[in-house]
Input
Amino acid sequence: MSQYKAPRGTHDIYGQLALALEELDRISRSVFRKHNFKEIKTPMFEDVALFTRSIGEATDIVEKEMYVFEDRKGRKLALRPEGTASLVRAYIEHRLDMEEPIGKFFYCGDMFRYERPQAGRYREFLQMGAEYLGNPNPNADVEIILLAKEILSKLNINDVVIHINSLGCANCRPVFRQKLIDYFSSIKDLCEDCKRRLEKNPLRLLDCKIDSCKFQNAPAMKDCLCDDCKKHFNTVQTLLQTVGCEYTVDDRLVRGLDYYTRTVFEVRSSAVGSQDAICAGGRYDNLVKELGGQQIPSVGFALGSERVLMAAQNTGFFENLPKKHLVFIAVADEELFNEAFKFANNLMANKDNIKQKLNLPENIIIEGPFLNKNLKSQFKLADKLEAQKTILFGKTEFEQNKILIKDMATKTQTEFEYKA
Ligand code: HAM
Output
């Protein structure tokens, strides 16, 4: 046993999980592309100030969870804890507002947060996200929510609750903030985190895991929204109702990133345990400007791939992963090995349409031939690999320009013409 283990909070992805992730990736990409979102790949690390500025200094992510390091030239960098800040940075840097008539982008990749690991919570995890830049209207918020829902329903994850809230704007949030400060100041025995946050970021108290039960009568943002924000939030709800998307308004939903304005949402699944948010997002109307760009109101979401796959455990998604069609190449007579080896290469390249001629599907996986293995152990291996077909090179058939294809399930053999 190796003395080395994957670092705490990280995990190796292999076997069924690797296949499932590949399928989730394929499904998400096809949904993103269908809705006209284009991929952006950004670096895994960025200037630390980008995250401090966008996510907010008084957030858990910035205060406690970032992997910060200095490179050899003393630059302060951080592994990305999320994708939105990097995407917005790239959008401004490459003047994509001038280049793209509609700012719809998606990204997939590893994110890093120094959190306390538990089921569904890792220090390195995968996100797939979409950002819709430049549309200030509530239909963009709903399009983003529906996009997330569409990906989930393609994995048969329908047993979810969509929590939504509005965090208002620069006009109305200060009123709410003050009401919260007044309210929380009257409550005794706040936990250390809440005491600290009361000054800097009172909204965060609303989702404190320790104290939240003490906050039964906390003010709600919806009662403080200005007319424009109220109208926006009402239209979001009307549109959701129009398309038959169920949701619940959740006054306690404040999110852990400071860039949000107006609509925020989380999709929660009871199949995942305490880390039940499988995807989340919201509107961030001021972020592009804060990072040096124009005033470009935007909205987006990200799903946590590992959590989504946890939610898909009992939906039949894993059982219905595309079946591999493995073809095993076996050699009955060692002297035919070179011929079998050449055949395997031709089959890989589908030379002269060989797959069609042998009645094999296009997407086969090819294994073998193996040197120094007798025929019995070759067939044993083919069985272990769950090969669907075994192509057998035997001397008699080969001399007659033939090969045998054995169907491993029915145990029937068919002869095919094959000229080396
Ligand atoms: P977030 O809520 O921090 O939002 O993360 C989005 C999703 O990533 C979560 O709902 C969860 O599924 C997954 N996730 C977060 N932390 C972990 C973790 N430690 N381990 C496993 N999965 C995790 C954002 O990151 C925003 N950038 C979303 C967004 C995009 N808002 C607007 N645009």
